[in-house]
Amino acid sequence: MKLFVSAEDKDIENRVSVTPDIIKKLTLSNQVYVEKDAGNNSGFPNEEYKSSGAMIVSGNEISEADLIFSINPLNKEKLEKIKEKAIIIAALDPFNNIDLIKEMNAKNITSFSLDFIPRTTRAQYMDILSSQASLAGYKAVIEASHILNRALPLMMTTAGTIPAAKVLIIGAGVAGLQAIATAKRLGAIVSAFDVRTSAKEQVESLGAKFIEVDSNEKTDGVYAKEMSDDYKKAQEQKLKEDVLPIQDIVITTAQIPGKKAPIIIKNDMVESMKNGSVIIDLAAKSGGNCELTVSGRSIEKNGVQIVGFENILNLIPFDASRLFAKNIFSFFELLTSKLQDNNDLSTIEDEILKSTLITFNGQIINERLKGIC
Ligand code: NAD
Predict the structure, then answer these.
(1) Is 33 assigned a catalytic role?
(2) How does residue 214 score in pLDDT terms, banded at 50, 70 and 90?
(3) Collapsing DSSP states into helix, strand and coil, what is residue 251?
(4) What Rg, from alpha-carbon coordinates, does the chain have?
(5) Residue 34 above 90 pLDDT?
(6) Is 223 designated active site?
(7) Which residue among 114, 115, 174, 265 is best mutated to probe the pocket of ligand 1, counting the most ligand atoms within 8 A of its Cβ?
(8) Residue 131: which of 69, 184, 174, 92 has the closest Cα?
(9) Where are the alpha helices (DSSP H) in the chain?
(10) Residues contacting residue 299 through CB under 8 Å, at least 6 positions apart
(11) What digits encode the pLDDT tens for the residues 120-155?
């Protein structure tokens, strides 16, 4: 197969989908083209790709490719050049890119979206949501610690004692749990909150305090659901009166798959917070967990700094790319092994391929997009 590693739009993305260590594996049985400077912003220069066996090319060679790797959806110019039935593997964010999905379908492109990977044990090696969220959670705490005008750990000095800073994590999924672990390692007093009851044990096992809301409503299972108005009211009261006024850093990561992120910190709740405290909103791109968040910007309100990272992974692109590349390679291995037995993807039974296949043979085939496209 001829494979093509696409360079991302440098204005929005520093990562690259395939790193030189993975090129070595891919070139064992494929010809690999890497678009010039694809890895420049993540710390992987053209020479490293070349010495790993790839051919460095301009964008035009995309037209010869049987399969294209990318992080973000390809732009119109690249889509125009791709040959019919070529395969794209990327994080297509299908719910927010319906027009693009239709366009790929009209061109008879086969596309897989890695952000539709099922959260199963078998799919863990390909789970870009987890690998990237984990780094995001870590980096959010590091960034917050830079912005905060005080230290995180308890320090006893001859000049006096500095108390440990207090960090609150809202949403204890993959990013939240990594944020808890990072803040604990830096010596902060950490508490966390999640609507899923199963999160309590995980939060406590990391040594953080789990914040309980006074309500009988519970969410079990892997994914959160939208909570009732009564629950939201109880949650708001608890956060506003008892929890937020004592925090130095708040990291929010709460998401509901396929929906706008829930607003958890309202304007008046920000007013209850300490001067100099910091909110890092990792849900900014999907609407934000704080009512005041502006995606892609850092703003200040009543002495509270609110940072709405659009893509925090741009600040840690080397490791984010390495993990993404390992995930994408595992997926590629699965796909090619299944294609050997059956190249009619519409009949493929594999759960991972079925969940991620978006367009095939002129059809928008994914169950989750039925009724939307
Ligand atoms: P996510 O990014 O969808 O959401 C982050 C967190 O926000 C979740 O824990 C969610 O419960 C929480 N949340 C949603 N609404 C909230 C609200 N109003 N208030 C407070 N918190 C709220 O989640 P994720 O990180 O992708 O993880 C989702 C689940 O998938 C977790 O249970 C995780 O353990 C599981 N998971 C399983 C696997 C696997 O088995 N392979 C891999 C990764 C994740």
Answers:
(1) no
(2) confident
(3) strand
(4) 22
(5) yes
(6) yes
(7) 174
(8) 174
(9) 20-26, 46-51, 76-81, 98-106, 128-147, 174-185, 199-205, 229-238, 267-271, 317-341, 351-356
(10) 292, 305, 306, 308
(11) 999 999 999 999 999 999 999 999 999 999 999 999
